Amino acid sequence: MVVAATCGHNLTASAQVKLQANNIDEVVKEMTLEEKCHLVLGCGMGYGVDVKFPGTAGSTYAIPRLGIPATYCADSNQGLRMSAHRDFDSRDFYCTDYMTSINLASTWDKKAAYRIGQGIGNETKEYGLDWILAPSLNLMRNALCGRNHEYYSEDPYLSGTIAGYYVRGIQDEGTAACIKHFAGNSQETNRNANDSRMSQRALRELYLRGFEWAVRIGNPWTVMTAYNSINGKATCEDKALTETILRKEWGFEGMVVSDWNAGTSATVSMIAGNDMLQPGQDRQFKELMADAQSGKLPMADLNRNVKRILQYVVKTHSFSDYQYNNEPNLKKHAADVREIGAEGMVLLDNKNALPLKSKANVALFGSTSYEIIPGGTGFGGTMVGRYTVSLVEGLRNAGYQVYKPLLNQYKAHVTAEQKRLYPNGLPPFSLRPLNRAEEIVMKAEDVEKTAANTDVAIITIGRKSGEAADRTVDEFNLYDKEKKMIAQVSDAYHKAGKKVVVLLNVCSPVETASWKNLVDGIVCTWQSGEQVGNSMADVLSGKVNPSGRLPITFENAYGDAASDKTFPSDIMDMKDLATMYMWGGDKAKAKHEPKANIDYTDYNEDVYVGYRYFDSFGKPVSYPFGYGKSYTTFAIQNASIENQNGKFVIKADVVNTGDVAGRNVVELFVAAPDSKKLNKPVRELRDYTKTGILKPGESETVTLTVENADLASFNSKASAWVVDAGKYEFQLASSSEKIDAVLTAKVKGMKIKVNNVMSPKVKLNLLKR
Ligand code: BGC
Questions:
Q1: Helix%, strand%, coil% for the chain, nearest 5
Q2: What pTM, to 2 d.p., does this model score?
Q3: Please, what is the average pLDDT of the chain?
Q4: To test the ligand 1 pocket, which listed residue (59, 75, 83) has its Cβ within 8 A of the most ligand atoms?
Q5: Peptide bond into 76 cis (omega under 30)
Q6: pLDDT tens across 571-584, in order?
Q7: How far apart are CA 660 and CA 658, in angstroms?
Q8: Is the Cβ atom of 259 under 6 angstroms away from ligand 1?
Q9: How far is CA 311 from the centre of its chain?
Q10: Average pLDDT, stretch 483-502?
Q11: Rounded distance, CA 225 to CA 256, Å?
């Protein structure tokens, strides 16, 4: 690996020409071959001794003689990931621990995404870095993907729009955003070598579509390719993906970077238009030098990539020598994460249990209640938050009493469990999810005593995941002890005439169908960052009226979704293996027969992912896509549609018909005509919007729009986006299952030809209606 200390020294004497925004071609001409081969490689990760920004993902090569500064990058979608402490420095450098992406997407609020992006872009800038490796927006193909909490949705439009506004926020601070992982990175098992095999239609309609929206809305300066392959080619080595689709078809003009240590040949990546390889390796430098000299790596390709890197460099804070202050407004950002974190919590059920009565005496059950989870593991989270507001603290801040005898019992239990699980102390850094405390099995009379002494029970169920490993079916289901706890607590509280509320402090859906009727309220809080306890308390108390909606379906049982059939859910020894690099690399691959769902994964469900499957095939679910309750009720009135020169404009009044103030999300699904014959999903999300806070009786007129061209489906045979002419239904909805108003309009047919690239090399057994 190229080490940071030697990265960017002067190779020759100072040159006349110094980099400016308008002389990039001249600078490229001045560069030596060595300098070019260095510039396209990163400078190692920021984990060495005395690096400028310890604990960050890396930097780019500096060439002082040409006025090319080093620029600095860091993860993540959840906030700037950087060590809070530095050797020989008395200050600290804490960053805001923002919410997981799944929590942010659950707000269905583009402005909220913008604000979070802006906060992260600002911290990146004020701590002296240039480039944040976020957002991640791979499609949630399956509930068990280990990185779902880093992603936005099972729907590409929701993913792409939230990502696009988040990117705008980052870049309005002058910080570079990076949409990743481009594309088809839907599982972590064997992530470096897995081949995602899919139809061109699924690729275009689902796995690329979100990125296309994010490029269109956010105009990101950079894109990161993924570890996996698509239809036989590594994404960082596939010219069709980066040059043909991303640049030629979508008009992307920025820089493409590889995921860290992805790909096998640096030369092939360069030719493919993967401009920069991170974090950079010596073997890659040698390969590029040799291949450039022999002509195997055309100089025109290398120069093109170098030019794109310099186009990025001239936009950075480092290039303009921005005088950063090391003092971003952490207080303001904490207020943002508290507010938006609560807005992204989803009320799944409420039988008069919520909001809690003020000053109630609350019994907190479940180990997670006492070790609340603010985010995921791996590079998707910040390294260390300055603090995490616990649930106990949040409830107390909101004026509740937390029942002490139970608190003391759990405190002792959680401490003992930590010792049992980690006899040598918690590992300082872990890519893999940490084991969590098992639940206490209580005696019935103890639970009854607690019920007698308290007003309400809150049970928290926790699940944590992160990159390099997928979840197992065991983790999707509730463990026996958890189920027992829910049954026992509900029984005792109901006998005492009191309510039970469950908080799902989870990274991705869990099984709910078998136990949800036992309890009186369920809030899916996801993992909302450093203010998690306050955000939870705000929702429980009614200070914030829940307005979050699910960005992913909660299936009844694992196995129900079409993609469950080809996801690595039954590889039980996977947890014990270093899955990140398992069987990766050509040599290792040659040693065994390719295994389904590990070496390759067939996306046989085709376009029927998430609600597209459940709705089209009439399969019941526990909680549908787009679902979420409120403490008030809303009505949709006076809905209308108008065709304005190829753009459909839908208007409706949203009226708060209940007793308390609140916000409402309006979802617009479109159903194409004869969709059965054409084998299309019965409905697809085409737009959404969110009202401001409406007082009881108050109304707001909302406007939703869809371009005619965006109603297209992808026809693989014709290599074209095709809009079938006919009468379409425009459905205003409060989930994919609950349609509140239906409008119809005649749509003109159209066909947009694109390139016939990235086709599958094997015959897939594609699902059809
Ligand atoms: C992750 C990326 C991340 C990179 C740099 C990789 O392991 O997949 O999301 O940006 O590391 O830290």
A1: 30, 20, 50
A2: 0.97
A3: 93
A4: 75
A5: yes
A6: 655 444 444 444 44
A7: 6
A8: yes
A9: 27
A10: 98
A11: 7
